[in-house]
Amino acid sequence: MREYQQSSLGLEGALLIAHPNLVDPNFRRTVIYLLSHDKAEGAFGLVINRALNKTVGDLLTGASELGPLRSVPVFWGGPVGLDRLTFAVFKWQKTRQAIEARMNVEIDEARLLALDGDTAVRAFVGYSGWGKDQLEGELEQKAWVVQKPDRDLLDAENCQNLWQTVMSTYGPWFKLLAEAPDDPSLN
């Protein structure tokens, strides 16, 4: 992972990695892919490291008609809009060495894109959102570490431990925090 350089357009395409001190249960130890960020409008993203241990085939009827979408993993995307399942597409852009993402992809398009090796299709229940200046305030409070994602993000298995992996790269103290259980009394 590389540090993300904020552009004048915002942090679109960046990862927000929850600082170990962030104790909000909705975002504790999460990694969020930011789909949009505008200081005047707010921000919108998806938690990419909280798999629900379900596939689209487990949740939708008529799974046989879904083709490759049957096996697409379903993630908890955040605390907003928990009443619907949406598809997001993550595509590796070789020339820019970056990941682009789109949300609310139609099922027919997602079915075709699920066959592309440089594309990952995921399903999400919910999303994460911030109002005007809210994310900027959280960044000033150092609640999030901002990084540029790499190609490994396309593999859903890599996302499961992404928070621990990233935190471990910040030195021994962060590595210790990343390896500690959520409830140390259970250790």
Question: What can you tell me about this protein's structure?
Answer:
There is one protein chain. By secondary structure, the chain is an alpha+beta fold. The protein has one domain (2-186): VC0467-like. Helix content is 20%, strand content 35%. Mean pLDDT is 85; it is low at 1-9.
Throw out a few tags for this protein.
single chain; VC0467-like; 6 helices; 10 strands; globular; disordered N terminus
Structure at a glance:
By secondary structure, this protein is of the alpha+beta class. It is 20% helix and 35% strand.
Return the average pLDDT rounded to an integer: 85
Low-confidence stretches: 1-9
CATH-derived topology: VC0467-like
Query: CATH H level: which superfamily?
Result: VC0467-like
Helix content: 10-25%
% residues in beta strands? 35-45%
Please report the first level of CATH classification, the CATH class: Alpha Beta
Query: What's the architecture, going by CATH?
Result: 3-Layer(aba) Sandwich
Radius of gyration, in Å, reads 17 Å
Strand count, sense and barrel status of the largest sheet are: 10 strands, mixed
SSE pattern? EEEEEHEEEHEHEHHH
Distance from N terminus to C terminus (CA atoms, Å) equals 30 Å
Number of strands: 10
Count the DSSP helices: 6
Structural class from helices and strands? alpha+beta
Shape: globular
Number of domains: 1
Write the layout of secondary structure elements.
Blueprint: E1 2-3, E2 15-18, E3 31-38, E4 42-47, E5 51-55, H1 56-59, E6 73-76, E7 80-93, E8 98-103, H2 107-113, E9 119-130, H3 134-140, E10 144-148, H4 156-160, H5 162-168, H6 172-179
